[in-house]
Design goal:
globular; 140 residues; 3 helices; alpha+beta; 29% strand; six-stranded antiparallel β-sheet
Length: 140
């Protein structure tokens, strides 16, 4: 299992870099070409949400992204440091079993529609959004 970690300042301009890095690593780990736009959009949405939360609550803290290939899956975790203690953890699949108002509105619903599997873990010290897509095991 290979892991890449990326941290960046809470600036909207860095979201584009995060999308580019995620797409390049997804391609290298064997995510189907047809899914790369979904990866790019979901990572961009998660990073934009994190940047906005940081700009409101903790502008000096970096946003953290972890990208890994794990047992035939490409997994991206976006972690912020903005408090979200009033929300409950949810595990979602892109099958319609999701209430968008539960976890911060439309952005999380968009991510759930783009990623194959999504888990959202809010807490008093930040929110972690884990997304994954199928990858070909022989790609690397």
């Amino acid at each position: 299992m290979a892991t890449v970690e990326l941290t960046f300042s809470a600036l909207p301009a860095h979201v584009r870099t995060a999308r580019l890095v995620a797409t390049a690593i997804a391609r290298r780990t064997g995510v189907a070409e047809a899914l790369l736009d979904e990866v790019r959009l979901a990572v961009g949405e998660a990073c934009s949400r994190a940047v906005e939360a940081h700009r409101l609550h903790c502008p000096g803290e970096p946003v953290r992204i972890e990208l890994r290939d794990d047992a035939g899956r490409f997994e991206v975790t976006v972690t912020d440091a903005a408090p979200s203690e009033d929300l409950k953890p949810h595990v979602m699949e892109a099958n319609g079993n999701f209430m968008p108002d539960d976890l911060g509105g439309l952005g999380i619903a968009v991510i759930a529609g783009l990623a194959d599997d999504v888990e959202v873990y809010p807490g008093p010290k930040g929110m972690r959004i884990r997304m994954s897509w199928p990858a070909l095991p022989s790609a690397v």
